[in-house]
Amino acid sequence: MAPLEIAGRTFASRLIVGTGKYPSPEIMLEAIRASGADMVTVAVRRVDIENPDRDDILRTLSPDEFSLLPNTAACYSAEEAIRAARLGRAAGMSDWVKLEVIGDADTLLPHTEDLIEATRVLVAEGFVVLPYTNDDLITALRLEEAGAAAVMPLASPIGSGLGLLNPLNIRIIKSRLSVPVIVDAGVGTASDACATMEQGVDGILMNTAIAAAEDPVEMAGAMRLAVEAGRRAYLAGRMPRREWAVPSSPLEGVSPPA
Amino acid sequence: METMQIQVNGRERDVPAGTSVATLLRDLGLDGRMLVVELNRRIVRPPEIESVQLEAGDRVELVHFVGGG
Predict the structure, then answer these.
(1) Which residues contact A10 (CB under 8 A, 6 or more apart)?
(2) Which residue in B7, B62, B64 has the most chain A C-beta atoms within 10 A of its own C-beta, making it the best mutation to test that interface?
(3) In chain B, which among 12-41 make CB contacts under 8 A with chain A?
(4) Which of A5, A76, A77, A226 could form a disulfide with A190 if both were Cys (CB 3.0 to 4.6 A apart)?
(5) pLDDT digits (tens, 9 = 90+) for A72-128
């Protein structure tokens, strides 16, 4: 199976995982290792001056073991997201950014206009931009045109666990883009991940489905298998759907009752 | 000792006049940590940390990586 390639870099795993909301740093590390992911997302936040070790993800995750992908979560305008991306670059010494510009606090759906604008600005500054977007072809095309290294449409709203709500839109986006399509957000369990990969997308980014599972490490292992199974099923090419039954066993040579 | 007031991560703080960014980090016990310093919305690169002097009213943001999706 060919590896995932984004902006000339190859990844052994087609699964990218987040690092938020885990019960403990130890469980997070074990779960990420079980997921097989090479790239993990992180957020940029203020240091707690009284307790600087608190929440410091680098105490748990080594940049030598995982590629860190800083996000711009909680940004509501192009300007805020561009600033967050620059801070992430300064913190991580990497030009990669998962670009989020949120348009609404209740749904966390993207502000697509500012997303496209921020993509254009950051690409011009040399960033490798991976924008989180909705499952809309036109926005996806405009992000690609703006220079996005991959486009990351949602399966369903962030943290909802509702799974892939519109497989058709995801297939349409995949069929029309040249850059990789990574489905980001909404996966709830392993079958969602498998079904998503069966649409032919290049990878999946998830956080809550693993972190909020009763046993995150076990779910991480399940997601690893599901992503691989979905990819292999896609490459294998599924059988055609039929409205009526077609027997699997030959009709000839049936031994009649006495 | 003459002091001046600055803002660090949104909170007022009195520091000696003429304090550099590096001295502020040492006083906060944060020197040598992986963090990013932003001074009045401009990122202070590591080579500049020793030389950049703070002034009264400056807004300093100290950020690092935390868990996120």
Answers:
(1) A3, A4
(2) B64
(3) 28-30, 33-36, 38, 41
(4) A226
(5) 999 999 999 999 999 999 987 789 999 999 999 999 999 999 999 999 999 999 999
Interface test with B, best of A86, A87, A132, A208 (most B CBs within 10 A): A87
Of A42, A57, A90, the CB nearest to B36: A90
Q: Which residue has the tokens 């993990």?
A: A40
What whole-number distance in Å separates Cα of residue B5 and Cα of residue B12?
A: 7
B49 with B22: CB under 8 angstroms? yes
In sequence order, which residues have a C-beta less than 8 Å from that of residue A87 and are 6 or more positions away? Answer: A44, A70, B36, B38, B43, B63
The 10s digit of each residue's pLDDT in A206-251 is: 999 999 999 999 999 999 999 999 999 999 999 999 999 999 999 8
SS3 A107: coil
Q: Sort out which chain A residues have CB atoms less than 8 A from B38's CB and list them.
A: 87
Q: Which of A42, A61, A88, A98 is catalytic?
A: A98
Whether the predicted pLDDT of A42 surpasses 90: yes
Task: Give A237's contacts (C-beta < 8 A, 6+ positions apart).
Answer: none
- Give Cβ neighbours of residue B23 (< 8 Å, ≥ 6 apart): B15, B16
Are A180 and A160 in contact, with CB atoms under 8 Å apart? no
In angstroms, what separates the C-alpha of A7 from chain B's closest C-alpha? 21
* CB contact (8 A) between residue A46 and residue B61: yes
Question: Which tokens belong to B32?
Answer: 């040598």
